[in-house]
Amino acid sequence: MKFGAPKERSEGERRVALTPESVGRLTKLGYECLVETGAGSEARIPDAAYEAAGARVVPDAATLWAEADIVAKVRAPDSEEVERTRDGQILISFLYPAQNPDLLESLSARGVTAIAMDMVPRISRAQKMDALSSMANIAGYRAVIEAGNQFGRFFTGQITAAGKVPPARVLVIGAGVAGLAAIGTAQSLGAQVRAFDVRPEVAEQIQSMGAEFLFLDFAEATDGAATGGYAAPSSPEFRAKQLELFRAQAPEVDIVITTALIPGRDAPKLWLADMVALMKPGSVVVDLAAERGGNCDLTVPGEVIETPNGVRVVGYTDYPSRMATQASTLYATNIRHMMDDLTPAKNGVPVVDMDDDVIRGAVVTHAGAITYPPPPSKIQ
Ligand code: NAD
């Protein structure tokens, strides 16, 4: 069967769901690969590289959607793309089904089997398909690079003939996948890093990376840490203690990277305007939660603002797309692994096995029905 990737149409989206390397792997799985002309250009992958890997470059999106049995994308399809789908086609993409009920309705009505990469269960067996993690890893790394771009000093301390330079002090709030990547990147640049998370079990990971874990002096140290490894909203008492801790940090730190999220909710406000006001001029806040409302109450999504006391607050929402080559490579690999699981006979024919926990978790429309949310037993 034919596996195809169109050019992404969302404004500012530079990633692509297929790379020449994944063309090679998918061909071995028995698929014929198609790519829309220019699909990889923003990720610096020319058409010729796809052709050299054995893919066929098609002239436009209409041809791609008409020919491909499986269409792989990064962003959820827009209405024009939905119009191009057909009965029995498989679509693999980020879909965020909880936020897009209308999209699920139209995809199921058109008989599409939609596989949401954001719904892949986060279990060990599925790590190779975990696109949320591969993109969060990039976001954490890039957050540090963007912070460095706005910061007027070195990260590392130096003693040179021209003077002594202290290391930058970096605070990372939220030590999930993105936070840990930010900690590792800032550490490797020589900064002095400290981090906080409501899940105390991450302390060991933070410390093993050479960073400091900021412990909170609170009777229920595990407040806010819920089942499934994800955070839950904190009690008002815990929150007050947490804000007190951050307020004490504000005059000391040069860079704050916030990554705190709670599934299904707006991002908690943790780095408040009065904390920004306490920061030194030249300091930087990078708010990785900007798309979900922001952890900092001064964040403007998509923009960098400068406060009257000279602090820059970075609210970009497109970190993986800012590293489109790397992000495309990792995302295409996640998808290729999904195709491995969907093609047990390696014969170029996908089998949507709804008894497989990983596939069941990710399939959100199938055979004319909406299959989201999956039964709880299929999520963990
Ligand atoms: P996330 O993006 O949902 O949240 C980011 C971090 O913010 C989390 O560490 C969370 O605890 C923290 N946070 C929430 N509220 C906070 C607050 N008020 N103050 C400070 N920090 C706060 O997290 P994620 O990166 O998706 O990871 C969530 C969980 O999933 C973790 O337990 C992680 O180990 C697990 N995980 C498992 C797998 C796997 O097994 N395949 C893959 C990735 C992640």
UniProtKB/TrEMBL annotation:
Residues 4-139 form the Alanine dehydrogenase/pyridine nucleotide transhydrogenase N-terminal domain. Residues 148-315 form the Alanine dehydrogenase/pyridine nucleotide transhydrogenase NAD(H)-binding domain. Keywords: Cell inner membrane, Cell membrane, Membrane, NAD, NADP, Nucleotide-binding, Oxidoreductase, Translocase, Transmembrane, Transmembrane helix. The keyword Cell inner membrane applies. Its EC number is 7.1.1.1. It is a multi-pass membrane protein. The transhydrogenation between NADH and NADP is coupled to respiration and ATP hydrolysis and functions as a proton pump across the membrane. The keyword NADP applies. It is found in: Cell inner membrane. It is an enzyme of class 7 (translocase). It comes from Mesorhizobium liriopis. The chain holds residues 1 to 380 of 522 of the full protein. One of its GO terms (molecular function) is oxidoreductase activity. It comes from the Bacteria. This is NAD(P) transhydrogenase subunit alpha. Belongs to the AlaDH/PNT family. It catalyses: NAD(+) + NADPH + H(+)(in) = NADH + NADP(+) + H(+)(out).
